[in-house]
């Protein structure tokens, strides 16, 4: 597995599924055969197959804190083209840090993952200022 730290230019993207999407990682260590996000490889410069690399957007929380002040409030899809709770999240905690920023600012979220690591952040979700009815 190739893992590299990168600096992103932006983190909060318009989405066709939710209002916005955030992807703290590019690539995914799960390497699911059915993954619809494998097309992202062509934007990375990686020669490796999808599932053999992960780029870590180390500045994701800092970018997010700035960007949410400039954008209209909306629901954020965490994450559209990576699993936000893949194994590198244990070390980098980018998803947890981004969730805290979003929820402290009352931005509703939708989390997509296949990892049980999401349970680590259950208290962040429980303690949010957002009404529990905002979470389906």
Point out poorly predicted stretches: none
Coarse shape: globular
**Count of alpha/pi helices:** 4
End-to-end CA span: 35 Å
Class computed from helices, strands and strand pairing = alpha/beta
The biggest sheet amounts to: 4 strands, mixed
Order of helices and strands: EEEEEHEHHEH
Estimate what percentage of residues fall within beta strands. 15-25%
Helix content class: 10-25%
Mean pLDDT: 88
The radius of gyration computed from the alpha-carbon positions, rounded to a whole number of angstroms, is 14 Å
Number of strands: 7
Q: Strand order across the biggest sheet?
A: 2-3-6-7
Task: Kindly describe this structure.
This protein is an alpha/beta fold and 136 residues long. Helix content is 21%, strand content 18%. It has helices spanning 60-67, 89-92, 94-104, 122-126; strands spanning 2-6, 12-14, 20-22, 25-27, 53-57, 76-78, 109-111. A hairpin with a 5-residue loop joins strand 2 (12-14) and strand 3 (20-22). The longest helix is centred in the last third of the chain and has 11 residues, at 94-104. 33% of the residues are buried.
Quick recap:
The protein has helices at residues 60-67, 89-92, 94-104, 122-126, and strands spanning 2-6, 12-14, 20-22, 25-27, 53-57, 76-78, 109-111. The protein is α/β, with parallel strands linked by helices. The longest helix has 11 residues, at 94-104.
Secondary structure topology:
Blueprint: E1 2-6, E2 12-14, E3 20-22, E4 25-27, E5 53-57, H1 60-67, E6 76-78, H2 89-92, H3 94-104, E7 109-111, H4 122-126
Parallel strand pairs: 1-5, 3-6, 6-7
Antiparallel strand pairs: 2-3, 4-5
Helix pairs in contact: 1-3
């Amino acid at each position: 597995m190739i893992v590299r730290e990168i600096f992103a230019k932006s983190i909060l993207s318009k989405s066709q599924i939710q209002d916005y999407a955030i992807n703290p990682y590019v690539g995914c260590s799960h390497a699911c055969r059915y993954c619809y996000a494998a097309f992202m490889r062509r934007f990375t410069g990686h020669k490796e197959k999808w599932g053999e690399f992960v780029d870590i957007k180390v500045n994701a929380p800092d970018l997010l804190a700035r960007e949410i002040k400039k954008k209209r409030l909306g629901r954020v899809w965490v994450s559209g083209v990576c699993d936000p709770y893949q194994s590198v999240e244990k070390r980098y905690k980018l998803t947890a840090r981004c969730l805290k920023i979003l929820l402290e600012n009352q931005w509703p979220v939708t989390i997509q993952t296949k990892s049980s690591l999401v349970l680590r952040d259950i208290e962040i979700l429980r303690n949010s200022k957002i009404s529990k009815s905002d979470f389906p």
